[in-house]
Amino acid sequence: RIQRHGAPGLTPPTLIRSRSAPVSALAVGLDYRGDALVVWAQAGSLYRRVLQASGRLLPIERVAPCPPGPHLQALISDDHRAIVAWTTDAQVHGVTTTSVYLDASLPGVHFTRPPLVLERFANPPGHALPDGSMWLVRLANEGVLIAWTGLSQGHYAIRSASVSLAAARPQSLISDPTADSVLADLATGPHSEALALWTTAPRKATGFDAGAV
């Protein structure tokens, strides 16, 4: 259901998909016209569907293979393009490997190219990143910024990169690489600035101590 600009209330519910397989992640993006992009993880894949401001529901399209439970972000722009980012975890012999993906669509919100792997790393033994460790936001000047928790010198660290429809631009390390830092949120301001919020805490064998923000 969407409440568009000037509307007195929410639209009637729109059924995006009906299938018996469980949905393990869900994200939505909205452009300034009122087109909505819905992205979800189901049955080993990521899917997308667009609900146009006119009320027309476009066909479902598969974006990429994906294991259950990704952390998922989605944006759609007024030129009928979209950007989707997600992280996945895979466990092998008790070690969790995290992968951070970015995928930009062709015109018409068609995802036909392989996604870009921004980073892939093995987490320290016994550790895994929480939800919220990756964010994708649109700035006031229509630019797009992604920030995520990666690994640097054996420590969790926060990276960011501006995003175009072609690729992610050079990455920046924005946290202290000598301490474990985990991204918590990413907010934007009126002058195309962004504010990243993360926690920094000593690492223990059983997890992290309560630390600083």
Overview features:
single chain; 213 residues
Q: What sort of overall outline do the alpha carbons produce when their principal axes are compared?
A: globular
Strand arrangement in the largest pleated sheet? 1-2-3-4
What fraction of the residues are assigned to beta strands by DSSP? Answer: over 45%
Count of distinct strands: 16
Average pLDDT, all residues:
89
DSSP summary: helix tally: 0
Q: For the report, how would you describe the main beta sheet?
A: 4 strands, antiparallel
The assigned structural class equals mainly beta
Low-confidence runs: none
Radius of gyration: 18 Å
Element-level helix/strand string? EEEEEEEEEEEEEEEE
What report would you give on this structure?
With 213 residues, this protein is mainly beta. It is built from no helices and 16 strands. Strands 1-2-3-4 form a four-stranded antiparallel β-sheet, with no helix packed on it. Strands 5-6-7-8 form a four-stranded antiparallel β-sheet, with no helix packed on it. The protein is globular and about 50 Å long. The model has no long low-confidence stretch (mean pLDDT 89).
